[in-house]
Specification:
single chain; ten-stranded mixed β-sheet; three-stranded antiparallel β-sheet; 36% helix; Mandelate_racemase_N_dom; lyase
């Protein structure tokens, strides 16, 4: 079996754009006509350039090769240009292609990927969602109420959280500690600390003990600033405090971990076992959040999870992508003894459902791993073709503030 063809799509994600403005998908095809899908979580360059980078990596290291040879592919790409170090852009490409290889491997074996990774430990996977304003809800959409939304209004956040709990979720996530800035870490303003505490308190009062609260900050603060924030929200017992400081110095994150009772979670911006090893060695977090579209792929993340397991650290796969990374997360999570919780983009409905020929199964707060071969999902290529992403500028929005316009 040899890989003979590679195709990419950059798909525009229509409003409300849950999971990002675009998705970067890849399809690999073998000489036997078996195909596999992958997806990259990469925002370091424009998405169309990233798609070309994926094609370049595939042409150099995969076309003409057996997709079963995951280790060989990873090492050749990892060492490209004599770099031999974690590279977030290269690993975004590798992750997408590696996921597609596993999809092929599973289809060729007529087994779901989890059967090839040690077997299924979990029959269902606990999931959480961000507090997304949602159509048909009593929570006003931002366009109808631009000055009030679930990210800055405790009452609306509490109402939205209660509605998700009513749907079946038993964990919800928010990041009200903005506005986000490229110039981190910094000290949070008192007004931001106060708002964050009021938001978390309102949600706790609305959901009681029926749901965990996951608190994110996107790595904004200094250690001292993060600890000030942690003290304000500790009384409401969040399940985690996500990325309290930037990801480049786990030694600093460890200072926060030692100074708060809230479990520290991190990992969406890390790649490969080497970066995660530094977090583990420094005892900087007790929950790791690898994103399979960036972390190095399925096998590399299985290794990360194994290292974490030896230190009683749990895994909560991150997903700010489309449904192919979501499906890969599910396949891996089903095999992990130290799995904690899975990021779900609402109920995998909306455009995520439209992109697939068969929806990811979600029931009462739980994701049910598919028993179909490979990743268990198939892209609807006609939908991909019909929704090209035509944006040309790289920019990031968080908490209403646009960066790098």
């Amino acid at each position: 079996m040899k890989i003979t063809d590679v195709k990419t799509w950059v798909v525009g994600n229509p409003p409300p754009g849950i999971g990002g403005r675009y998705f970067i998908f890849v399809k690999l095809t073998t000489d036997g006509g078996v195909h596999g899908y992958g997806e990259a979580y990469s925002a370091t360059f424009g998405p169309h350039l990233t798609a070309r980078m994926i094609e370049d990596v595939a042409e150099r290291y995969l076309v003409g090769q057996d997709p079963h040879d995951i280790e060989s592919f990873f090492r050749r790409a990892y060492s490209s240009g004599f770099s031999q170090r974690p590279d977030i852009s290269m690993m975004g490409c590798v992750s997408a292609l590696e996921i597609a290889c596993w999809d092929i491997i599973g289809k060729e074996a007529n087994k779901p990927v989890y059967k090839l990774l040690g077997g299924q430990v979990h029959q269902r996977l606990r999931s959480y969602t961000y507090l997304y304003p949602h159509t048909g809800s009593a929570v006003p959409a931002e366009a109808d109420n631009p000055d009030r939304n679930v990210y800055n209004d405790p009452d609306l956040a509490a109402q939205c959280a209660a509605e998700y709990v009513e749907q079946g979720f038993n964990a919800v996530k928010l990041d009200p500690a903005g506005p986000y800035t490229a110039f981190d870490g910094h000290q949070p303003r008192l007004v931001d600390i106060d708002l964050s505490a009021r938001m978390v308190r309102a949600i706790r009062e609305a959901v009681g003990t029926e749901a965990d609260i996951l608190f994110g900050t996107h790595g904004q603060f200094t250690a001292s600033g993060a600890l000030r924030m942690a003290r304000a929200i500790e009384p409401y017992d969040p399940l985690w405090f996500e990325e309290p400081v930037p990801p480049d110095m786990p030694e600093v994150m460890a200072q926060v971990a030692r100074g708060t009772s809230i479990p520290i979670a991190t990992g969406e911006r890390l790649t490969t076992k080497w970066e995660f090893a530094r977090v583990i060695e420094n005892r900087a977090a007790t929950i790791l959040q690898p994103d399979l579209g960036r972390s190095g792929g399925i096998l590399e993340t299985k290794k990360i999870a194994a290292m974490a397991e030896a230190y009683h650290i749990q895994i909560a796969p991150h997903c700010y992508c489309g449904p192919i990374v979501g499906a890969a997360n599910i396949q891996l999570a089903a095999t992990l003894p130290n799995f904690l919780i899975l990021e779900s983009l609402k109920q995998w409905d909306g455009f995520h459902e439209t992109l697939l020929r068969r929806k990811i199964q979600w029931e009462d707060g739980w994701v049910i791993p598919s028993s179909e071969p490979g990743l268990g999902v198939e892209l609807d290529e006609a939908v991909c073709e019909a929704h090209p992403y035509e944006g040309t500028r790289l920019h990031l929005e968080m908490a209403g503030e646009a960066l790098f316009p």
